[in-house]
Amino acid sequence: MNETTQKASGPKYGVLAVLMIGAFIAFLNNTLLNIALPSIMKDLQIETATVQWLTTGFMLVNGIMIPATAFLIQKYSVRKLFITAMGLFTLGTVIAGMADVFPLLLSGRMLQASGSAIMMPLLMNVMLVSFPVEKRGAAMGVFGLILMAAPAIGPTLSGWIIEHYDWRMLFHFVTPIAVIVLLLGVFLLKDKKEKVKMRLDVVSLLLSSVGFGGILYGFSSAGSKGWDSPHVYATIIVGAVSLITFIVRQTKLERPMLNFGIYKYPMFALSSSITMVLNMAMFSGMLLLPIYVQTIRGISPFDAGLLMLPGALVMALMSPITGRLFDKIGGKILAVAGLAIVVVTTYLFSKLSLDSTYSYLVVLNSVRMLGISMVMMPVSTNGLNQLPAKMYPHGTAMNNTLNQVSGAIGTALLVTIMSNKSESSATSLVAQYGADAAAKQQQIMLESMLEGINFAFYISSLIAVVSLILAFFIKRATPADGPIEFKPSDDQESKVVPETV
To answer: Model-level pTM?
Structure first.
């Protein structure tokens, strides 16, 4: 099957469906875990700075592996990559479900991450190659609807499971579904790929692993070890030096593992910057809100999940709408309006009290999710639209890598800010209460944690302002090499676009 056949017959929706179900399961697993973090902390007797590794460790593996996906997508067929990715994810799910100590649970999560790291760029590349630019917004909107259904279902389902069963049931629930999706991939994906003469540059792989891994590990360790720890700043420095060396090396290779030439295209560079900054701000709601409602307010896991449900539903339902709006009006208006909403709502979250009403939290979170839904997919799609077809694997790999890096940095930064502010607030409250401090220990703990969460949300709103400013520079992008021509060729460029569907 060649690209001519693909263009004539149109996208293979059955193949896309299998890939989307796989991505949905991976995304669902992430949203299931957010509500479970307080229960895991209690059961395994670990601190917030430790349990965050279930999130940042996942991102760490993604950040290390995703840069290699541009090479993998060009070299191997969709079938091989999907079965490998889903197999790794399923194995990790089984291990995590059996975990009785934190290191084993973290190992399972990292195996899941290694599968997810391949799956998401693979699906994005298939979507880009399958649809022309003028229909891509609507297609990405449907893709967003399916993936956003995961956060709509995840928190509520997670809350119900945790109230009635052990948190390990979250993984036991996903396991049979993952096995079925794996089998669907084995029997339904039939694409073949001609042998491509490409070799993975091992030096580049090592440099990117140490570079992205060092930066992610350093920022992730800051929450527990502090920014002044040599363990933290040494790994960040080593990571930064390795990353710079990696980038310089890619510019000199004839076939780079990750082509940084994509940043010559201004709309891609701008969209990449906006989504990175927004990712850092976005994780505040995903991480801090479940801690607030369960630890400070004492709301049950199920009700905490219900609290997140309307916002996730808004995000899911808006995805196809924003996709169609993007096709008609472009990304600038959507991004500016959406980011303005994100800035205001995130700032309002920094004013939480010990008795903020449940309905207020639901409405505020829903409006915030509305804003995020207007930004993420349109901005990313607009940036990718400017790239030549041969650059799609590099663009999707770069976006996914930087999303993981920025998400991990944002998570580590916000947890550190929350922890430091909570500690300083607790110290001042102890001094304020004086002799009564011992009797009011519980009150001091709640008030100091609330101060930490509010301050982290405030910093998050300032970060979102940066994205808002950048959004004013967005212009509608068109492919740099004109319309994609699906025709067989013997030159390098025809081999770079993978035969996907």
So the answer is: 0.71
